[in-house]
Amino acid sequence: MKQTLRQSIIAGRAALPETVHARKSAAITARLLQLAAYHEARSVLGYMHFGAEFVSDPWLQQVLRDGKRLLLPKVNAATRELDVYHVEDTDAQLAPGAYDIREPLPERCVPGRLDEIDFILLPGVAFGRDGARLGYGGGFYDKLLARLDAGKQGAGPALVAAAFAMQVVDGIPQEATDRKVAWLVTENETIHCVAQTGASHNGFL
User: Fold this and answer.
1) What is the extent of the structural domain holding 75?
2) What is the pTM for the complete model shown?
3) Domain count, the chain
4) pLDDT in tens, 103-145
5) Which of 79, 37, 69 is nearest to 205 (CA)?
Protein backbone atom coordinates (compact mmCIF):
# COMPACT_ATOMS: atom_id res chain seq x y z
CA MET A 1 0.00 0.00 0.00
CA LYS A 2 2.79 2.43 0.90
CA GLN A 3 4.60 1.91 -2.40
CA THR A 4 1.41 2.29 -4.41
CA LEU A 5 0.64 5.55 -2.62
CA ARG A 6 4.20 6.79 -3.15
CA GLN A 7 4.06 6.09 -6.87
CA SER A 8 0.69 7.78 -7.24
CA ILE A 9 1.67 10.95 -5.39
CA ILE A 10 5.10 11.24 -7.05
CA ALA A 11 3.53 10.86 -10.49
CA GLY A 12 0.85 13.45 -9.74
CA ARG A 13 3.41 15.88 -8.38
CA ALA A 14 5.64 15.45 -11.41
CA ALA A 15 2.69 16.20 -13.71
CA LEU A 16 2.25 19.72 -12.30
CA PRO A 17 3.04 22.33 -14.98
CA GLU A 18 6.24 24.25 -14.23
CA THR A 19 4.45 27.56 -13.72
CA VAL A 20 1.94 25.97 -11.33
CA HIS A 21 4.72 24.20 -9.44
CA ALA A 22 6.61 27.49 -9.01
CA ARG A 23 3.50 29.39 -7.90
CA LYS A 24 2.55 26.75 -5.34
CA SER A 25 6.12 26.58 -4.00
CA ALA A 26 6.21 30.36 -3.55
CA ALA A 27 2.92 30.27 -1.64
CA ILE A 28 4.26 27.54 0.65
CA THR A 29 7.44 29.52 1.29
CA ALA A 30 5.41 32.56 2.32
CA ARG A 31 3.37 30.47 4.77
CA LEU A 32 6.47 28.82 6.26
CA LEU A 33 7.95 32.24 6.97
CA GLN A 34 4.79 33.26 8.86
CA LEU A 35 4.98 30.41 11.37
CA ALA A 36 5.62 31.53 14.94
CA ALA A 37 7.82 28.46 15.41
CA TYR A 38 10.02 29.68 12.57
CA HIS A 39 10.28 33.21 13.97
CA GLU A 40 11.27 31.84 17.37
CA ALA A 41 13.87 29.41 16.00
CA ARG A 42 17.56 30.18 16.14
CA SER A 43 18.80 27.02 14.39
CA VAL A 44 16.88 25.51 11.48
CA LEU A 45 17.36 22.13 9.79
CA GLY A 46 16.19 22.29 6.19
CA TYR A 47 16.73 20.20 3.08
CA MET A 48 17.58 20.65 -0.58
CA HIS A 49 14.69 19.61 -2.77
CA PHE A 50 14.92 17.19 -5.66
CA GLY A 51 12.61 16.13 -8.46
CA ALA A 52 9.20 17.79 -8.28
CA GLU A 53 9.28 18.47 -4.54
CA PHE A 54 8.37 21.86 -3.07
CA VAL A 55 11.23 24.14 -4.15
CA SER A 56 13.06 24.76 -0.89
CA ASP A 57 15.87 27.06 -2.12
CA PRO A 58 14.08 30.42 -1.65
CA TRP A 59 13.07 29.46 1.89
CA LEU A 60 16.64 28.37 2.72
CA GLN A 61 18.03 31.67 1.44
CA GLN A 62 15.54 33.58 3.60
CA VAL A 63 16.62 31.53 6.64
CA LEU A 64 20.15 32.84 6.08
CA ARG A 65 18.97 36.41 5.46
CA ASP A 66 17.00 36.26 8.71
CA GLY A 67 20.24 35.57 10.58
CA LYS A 68 19.32 32.06 11.67
CA ARG A 69 21.77 29.16 11.76
CA LEU A 70 21.03 26.88 8.82
CA LEU A 71 21.82 23.19 8.96
CA LEU A 72 21.47 20.76 6.06
CA PRO A 73 21.70 16.95 6.01
CA LYS A 74 24.23 14.69 4.32
CA VAL A 75 23.84 10.94 3.89
CA ASN A 76 26.55 9.04 5.77
CA ALA A 77 27.25 6.03 3.55
CA ALA A 78 28.88 4.10 6.40
CA THR A 79 26.08 4.46 8.95
CA ARG A 80 23.17 4.88 6.50
CA GLU A 81 22.09 7.85 8.60
CA LEU A 82 22.00 11.61 8.15
CA ASP A 83 24.77 13.84 9.46
CA VAL A 84 24.02 17.56 9.76
CA TYR A 85 26.27 20.48 8.90
CA HIS A 86 26.13 24.25 9.26
CA VAL A 87 25.81 25.95 5.88
CA GLU A 88 26.28 29.65 5.18
CA ASP A 89 26.61 29.60 1.38
CA THR A 90 24.58 27.03 -0.56
CA ASP A 91 26.53 27.73 -3.75
CA ALA A 92 30.01 27.28 -2.31
CA GLN A 93 29.39 24.64 0.36
CA LEU A 94 27.13 22.11 -1.41
CA ALA A 95 27.62 19.52 -4.15
CA PRO A 96 25.49 16.69 -5.60
CA GLY A 97 25.65 13.64 -3.32
CA ALA A 98 23.44 10.67 -2.52
CA TYR A 99 20.48 10.36 -4.91
CA ASP A 100 21.97 13.39 -6.73
CA ILE A 101 20.65 15.70 -4.00
CA ARG A 102 22.88 18.66 -3.17
CA GLU A 103 24.58 18.02 0.18
CA PRO A 104 27.07 19.81 2.43
CA LEU A 105 30.76 19.29 1.64
CA PRO A 106 32.30 18.22 4.98
CA GLU A 107 35.60 19.90 4.14
CA ARG A 108 33.79 23.23 3.74
CA CYS A 109 31.23 23.01 6.55
CA VAL A 110 31.20 22.84 10.32
CA PRO A 111 29.42 19.75 11.76
CA GLY A 112 26.19 20.48 13.59
CA ARG A 113 24.46 18.87 16.58
CA LEU A 114 20.89 17.69 16.73
CA ASP A 115 20.39 19.17 20.18
CA GLU A 116 20.93 22.70 18.87
CA ILE A 117 18.08 22.53 16.32
CA ASP A 118 14.85 24.44 17.07
CA PHE A 119 12.94 23.87 13.81
CA ILE A 120 13.02 20.96 11.34
CA LEU A 121 11.51 21.05 7.86
CA LEU A 122 10.87 17.43 6.90
CA PRO A 123 10.55 16.18 3.33
CA GLY A 124 8.06 13.49 2.38
CA VAL A 125 5.84 12.07 -0.30
CA ALA A 126 2.44 12.22 1.43
CA PHE A 127 1.04 13.63 4.65
CA GLY A 128 -2.14 13.34 6.69
CA ARG A 129 -3.97 16.21 8.32
CA ASP A 130 -3.19 14.46 11.61
CA GLY A 131 0.54 14.91 10.93
CA ALA A 132 1.21 11.42 9.59
CA ARG A 133 4.15 11.36 7.18
CA LEU A 134 5.04 8.96 4.37
CA GLY A 135 8.68 9.27 3.32
CA TYR A 136 10.56 7.83 0.38
CA GLY A 137 11.25 4.51 2.07
CA GLY A 138 14.90 4.93 3.02
CA GLY A 139 14.22 5.58 6.69
CA PHE A 140 16.84 8.34 6.93
CA TYR A 141 14.62 10.85 8.68
CA ASP A 142 13.03 8.20 10.89
CA LYS A 143 16.52 7.40 12.19
CA LEU A 144 17.35 11.07 12.62
CA LEU A 145 14.18 11.68 14.64
CA ALA A 146 14.88 8.60 16.76
CA ARG A 147 18.35 9.98 17.56
CA LEU A 148 16.77 13.32 18.36
CA ASP A 149 14.33 11.67 20.77
CA ALA A 150 17.12 9.71 22.44
CA GLY A 151 19.02 12.85 23.34
CA LYS A 152 16.06 15.15 23.82
CA GLN A 153 15.72 17.46 26.76
CA GLY A 154 12.54 19.49 26.94
CA ALA A 155 10.00 19.82 24.17
CA GLY A 156 12.41 19.41 21.26
CA PRO A 157 12.31 21.18 17.89
CA ALA A 158 9.17 22.01 15.95
CA LEU A 159 8.55 19.37 13.27
CA VAL A 160 7.15 20.97 10.13
CA ALA A 161 6.37 19.67 6.64
CA ALA A 162 5.88 21.54 3.38
CA ALA A 163 3.80 19.86 0.69
CA PHE A 164 1.42 20.61 -2.13
CA ALA A 165 -2.26 20.17 -1.30
CA MET A 166 -2.42 17.14 -3.62
CA GLN A 167 0.05 15.38 -1.28
CA VAL A 168 -2.38 15.54 1.66
CA VAL A 169 -4.26 12.24 1.91
CA ASP A 170 -6.23 10.17 4.40
CA GLY A 171 -5.22 6.82 5.85
CA ILE A 172 -1.42 6.93 5.64
CA PRO A 173 -0.09 3.64 7.09
CA GLN A 174 1.83 4.29 10.31
CA GLU A 175 4.19 2.25 12.45
CA ALA A 176 4.32 2.54 16.23
CA THR A 177 7.67 4.33 16.00
CA ASP A 178 6.61 6.86 13.33
CA ARG A 179 6.73 10.54 14.31
CA LYS A 180 4.05 12.98 13.24
CA VAL A 181 4.70 16.57 12.24
CA ALA A 182 3.27 19.41 14.29
CA TRP A 183 2.60 21.66 11.31
CA LEU A 184 1.75 20.87 7.71
CA VAL A 185 2.06 23.79 5.30
CA THR A 186 0.51 23.68 1.83
CA GLU A 187 -0.07 26.39 -0.76
CA ASN A 188 -3.63 26.74 0.55
CA GLU A 189 -3.43 26.40 4.33
CA THR A 190 -1.34 25.96 7.43
CA ILE A 191 -2.56 22.92 9.36
CA HIS A 192 -1.87 22.56 13.07
CA CYS A 193 -1.61 18.78 13.23
CA VAL A 194 -0.85 18.46 16.94
CA ALA A 195 -4.40 19.44 17.84
CA GLN A 196 -5.66 16.85 15.30
CA THR A 197 -8.75 18.94 14.77
CA GLY A 198 -8.25 19.49 11.07
CA ALA A 199 -8.25 23.21 11.75
CA SER A 200 -6.36 25.44 9.36
CA HIS A 201 -5.01 28.94 9.84
CA ASN A 202 -4.04 31.85 7.65
CA GLY A 203 -0.45 31.50 8.81
CA PHE A 204 -0.20 34.58 11.02
CA LEU A 205 0.43 32.64 14.22
Assistant:
1) 2-201
2) 0.91
3) 1
4) 999 999 999 999 999 999 999 999 999 999 999 988 899 999 9
5) 37
